[in-house]
Amino acid sequence: MVSRVIPVNLFDLVIFGATGDLAKRKILPGLFHRFAVGQMPAKAGIIAVARTAMSADSFRDIVRESLMEFAPKFAQDKDLLARFLGQIDYVRVDATGDQGWDELAAALRPDTVRSFYLSVAPSLFGTIAAQLTAHNIATKDSRIVVEKPFGHDLASAQALNADLRRSFDEHQIYRIDHYLGKETVQNLMALRFANALWEPLWNATHIDHVQITVAEDLGVDGRGEYYDQSGAMRDMMQNHLMQLLCLTAMEPPSRFQPSAVRDEKLKVIEALNPVPQTDIVRGQYRGRDGAGGYLDHVGNSKSRTESYIAMKVTIGNWRWAGTPFYLRTGKKLRARTSEIAVVFRDPPHMIFPHVPERRGNAMIIRLQPDEGITLRNTIKEPGPGGFRLAEVNLDMTFADIVEEHSEPQDAYERLIMDVIRGDQTLFMRGDEVEAAWAWADPIINEWQSARSTPVPYDQGSSGPDDALMLLHRDGRRWREIG
Ligand code: BG6
To answer: From the CA of 339, how far away is ligand 1's center (Å)?
Structure first.
């Protein structure tokens, strides 16, 4: 069911956890950006909610400071800033108790569509959802937005879904995976389904393999406690990389609508074959030259949690049988690079005698940095002389294409505006999340029962050597990171 798409000027957005990091860094700056470019109307209300006692003016001072830091370009405009701050209210609410709910109800206007953004610990999702209905604050048109981690295994994800569904229908629930808000990720759908060029080639007959890389140069300092309970598998693979895999591998949906798109993504997850441990490499970055390693950063010298994971994933369906997807993600790697590389098979018969070492045709979809798409082609090396082949990139960099004055949109901005518009296409459905956990659980359980230990890798490297072997043994190699 598609929720009612409303004119954007009639909404109240309530942010629970409004004094937290995500609200300061992403949610409020994102809303401010949209306000600055005229996408948020003058009557939109933002109601910040947290446990701390403070006046709306004190909260606005905090917002002013964070906008100076995280949205400096627009925050220079004092008049614009003042108008935006004027739309923000603050209400103190005790999520687990009775205090503040009546005040929150009073702060909301009648006849608006209400969205509740829960930027709080998942353990509070169910409680807040129940309070919102118990106090008649949520209506049948309301939306509720939640963030990962959405469970740490199948059972906990099912419990969270059940908690939310006690108070809200699935068509009201917006589960954010911010990777789906990234420009290139959406472009992947346009590229595949708005061109007749690629679809005939988009299968195991023509594609040799796919590499999905999400490499980060940062470590886990500052988030050690959370991260050590999760590791790269739960923190990145089960959600962000899984979503990238789905968009790359899914069948064309019949229409660009939430249920059609999400049905196709779900089918991909359900078609994944179990991954044997021999197709998985787990790594943990070690200290070097006085720089602390993972164990120092999480403050747990015995931790067996992985900060890197690479795996070979196969999909059991007609389109993809015989084409492996190699996925890898890790912290403290050489560079921050995220991309999807679709590597095509060689021509069936090569007529040219002098073929240099070839990497072959590939489409590289760059998520970050430098968003864009590169197409690797083989051509005759221009110029006189013999007939030598060379590989050359056709490059499409999105920054060169966007209109001169348009501002790049952060993933959160895009997603928050979709909540307001009532468009669930770029949000995860409950059954998708559960299916992804059903796939991940046996893998994680096996590590736990075998007490498996990740292999060490150097900070600033491309990850453990064992990960290179994962492709070498199949006669393939990873693309360079960075
Ligand atoms: C988050 C993970 O979901 O995504 C972090 O919890 C990770 O560990 C982050 O650093 C990466 O997001 P991005 O947008 O910087 O690639």
So the answer is: 14
